[in-house]
Amino acid sequence: MTTTSPIVVAPRKRRDPVLIGLWISLVLVAIIWLAPVAFITFTAMKSESEVFSSAAFALPSKIEWNNFALAWAKGDFNNTFWNSTVITLVKVPLGLVISAMAAYALAQIRFGWNKMLLVFLLFGAMIPFQVMLAPLFTLVNSLSLIDTYPGIILPYLAFGVPYQVFILHGFFKAIPKELTEAALIDGASHFVIFRRIFLPVCLPVLAALLILDFVATWNEFAMALVLLQDKSMWTLPLGLMSFQSQFSNNYSQLNAAIVITVLPATLVYLIFQRYFVSGLTSGAVKG
Amino acid sequence: MATVEIDNLHKSYGALQVVHGVSMSFQDGEFIILVGPSGCGKSTLLRMIAGLEEITAGTVSIDGTVVNNLSPKERNIAMVFQNYALYPQMTVAQNMGFSLELSKIPKAQITAMVKETAEILGLTPLLDRKPSQLSGGQRQRVAMGRAIVRDPEVFLFDEPLSNLDANLRVKMRAEIKALHQRLGSTIVYVTHDQVEAMTMADRIVVLRAGRVEQIGTPLELYDNPQNMFVAGFLGSPAMNFLAGRLAVDGSPSLVLESGETVALARRPDVGAERDVVLGVRPQDISLDPTDGTAAVVKVIEPTGADTHVLAELAGQDVTCVLSERLDLKVGDEIRLSFKTPAAHFFDLKTEARLSAGN
Fold first, then answer.
1. Are B72 and A181 in contact (CB < 8 Å)?
2. Is residue B188 assigned to a domain?
3. Which residue intervals define the domain ABC transmembrane type-1 in the entry (chain A) (predicted)?
């Protein structure tokens, strides 16, 4: 006869040492990345005297909102902020639309030259733009586009589109061709298929690319420095550089200026980050 | 509803030819099944009818009009794909109404048409769901609904049941057949499953390596296969083939290569002694303890209704379906009789059917 014990001993929970190790490294990496952000934010909110009297990572005793207003005014951020906004708001959506359409055509419409065109396009992503800065300046100058919005937006598009096409092409290729065929039989044109079926399906990837491209465009420095000579056309990173050289001893205002520069990109990231994560992992697991 | 005519159709991918001059014609309202092993060109043929694949040579006509140069939408066909191909971000209703919307039919009318089709297919409670919220069978039904709602001239089905589990497949098979009877439309259906072909088709087209092997009603093909390929492809379990020499004198019999003699019910009209292949369906083999040919049991598969026995006869595997419940074990010797009037004879070299004799 067998008896069953009424007492069930719960197995002692054993923690996986690998998991613990991973968590520790995650926390460490987070600290390394967050430290400068905390330093900049706290310093931006301290008074000039408190910056030198308190520890670097100490919270401000009294928040000096005025730092932001002063930095804004001194650094001529009215102007640079506006320029950055115009350039980013035109370039990022336009670039994405062009890239998505090009990627769709390369992935879904057979015309014999698809592979070669894709490789040709990818050359654009392989050549570092620093190599091309001088010829680029000559070209933009010959078109009389130095110190104009098109003069900076067009090169940004040229350098941004290839890698976006590359990513979207991979994504569009993975969409079963039957979906396109079903739509073709249903009477849809390629443009309708692109707009009504492919775009909604790849929204997470587009959101991910939007964030990456927004941050990259917003923070772009070298090309802007070369192509935007007139101070009135400067973007935020250029304005920040100028501010830094003029007011390098005023730490709190300098950091306030940095916060102003970084904030929009952070906000865009926060708004789209849930798509960003799903976009990065999409296609990784069979849905 | 329409007729479909295929005339000397060729398809090549570069140097590789996959369809070799296929001709056939389907009547208005016929349920045609294209069947064959993987890579036989059946899907390519269907896609050429749909306009999704370019035609290398030959013509496809729908209702008397050559459609070679028409786009898929201009052919007035509807297609159901193996993986359903439902638009993932649209609801069931939107999926079904998409083609109507593109042909600029008023919204109210689309809603009514979608509703009516949904009712036929029992999809009414699912109209607001997205494809990801549906089971495989439901998705397949939506794919069919999307085809039906357009009221096309011809329905094309590309292995629509292959992604479903066995039970659902049987159920959907009956549903598609009932739907065909209700709509009375021309259907061209591709499958590699001979059971689907046998149970659903008005006529079956058996394809091999881009060529038509035989066209006919399921029972014509089952009873009078033109060659060994068709004979072996249709019927489950597959037909048994025994190669041997046909004796001309005495009672009809086949002498196998091993020297064993298999008694036959009749002899084909071949004149002189010659090498042939005897084809007997597993269901036509019976046990005959006195006159039967000895075989050794290798595998026993009871299905409940009958028992499938795989036995070795003179070095060749023979499957038989026995309705008796026998107490058999692996290694037992049984005696099998091939004396059935339903035996088929094929030429050993050409694999073509030999005409029936006495």
1. yes
2. yes
3. 81-272
